[in-house]
Specification:
Length: 393
Amino acid sequence: MAVTDAFRELYGYAPEGVWAAPGRVNLIGEYTDFNDGFVMPLALPHTAVAAVARRADGVLRVHSADVDQGVVELAVDELAPRSGSGWAVYPAGVVWALREAGHPVTGADIHLGSTVPTGAGLSSSAALEVVTALALNDLFGLGLGGDELAVLAQRAENAFAGVPCGIMDQMASACCTEGHALFLDTRDLTRRQVPFDLPAHDLQLLVVDTRVKHALGDGAYAQRRAGCEAGARALGVRTLREIPYAQLPDALGRLSDAVISREEHPGPQAEEIRRYVRHVVSDNHRVERTIALLDAGDLRAVGPVLTEGHASLRDDLRVSCTELDLVVATANAAGALGARMTGGGFGGSAVVLVEQDAADRVAKEVKDAFAAAGHTAPRIFPAVPSGGARRVR
Ligand code: ADP
Ligand code: MG
């Protein structure tokens, strides 16, 4: 195995084992996880793979086959939040989070490589964190469950790497199972594996990586977050999750300028907050509708729900971009069952649900449309619902 050989070459001895953790794509439920809401990711066949051995001397060495940089050597008791930069913050952050939580991680040698596309909204960072967490959990006999590892991995990303992200990515990488989408209630991490056997239904879910990332996205997440929090305060609930879909019209009615104006300024304004609330409450409902359809085996009917979700992200949350809108419009015009942007938006990836025998044609039309518009050629591949983090040897 390539990572085993590379580990041996790098560190001069054999690793104790090899672990893998996947990237993910979110089927439905976007910008809901910081509102205690619902998400529904599936794991990709693309994984981060790590060969790892314990050390007892407080030294942490990490190396990536995919980065043109040598071994990064750190002292575990000197790891501090926001002190590092570069890719090593992800595995190092996990070691820090485990130690912070009182787990006796005394050092390690790690060599890893990944097939998860980076920066495409497919959670290559969570794959790195989760593969590291699972390897250390096994080697140091910590006995933590997938959800506990996911929470620690999220803490590594939030507090150590300084990236504000919800819990979806790490939970998906840690807890997904083959042939299923993971329904996750982010309020308490209760979850259910929902059958999503695309091949059995002659369907494909295409991931279209637009290869763009617009700078606009940087402040947008914080802005949406602040707006949702202001909306929850104005409605007298802890989070927008508490608003049932049936009460959405009433909630929107109550979000009058008068109510919002009691909120601190400057912040998101009333019209904006109403749009954000409408997106979050309706997207939670779209997750529930998707679960019902999948449970009923009506996978094709999920298509229009995806397209509806895209319209909500585009028009209400306003986190889409021309490239993502082009994917969705072109795919649907070419006969896809439905499509939407996935992840944080402003670039990154879209998902397209298609009949298996139409997949090549739809993919070609999307590529042609990108070429005609002068955009960078997108990367398109099928998302086969795959297993979560596991030991491979
Ligand atoms: P995403 O998680 O959506 O792919 P992020 O910006 O959150 O995007 O994470 C990407 C970062 O994760 C990269 O810039 C790099 O620091 C790190 N990373 C991902 N894969 C690898 C890898 N194979 N080797 C080293 N670092 C990686
Ligand atoms: Mg990430």
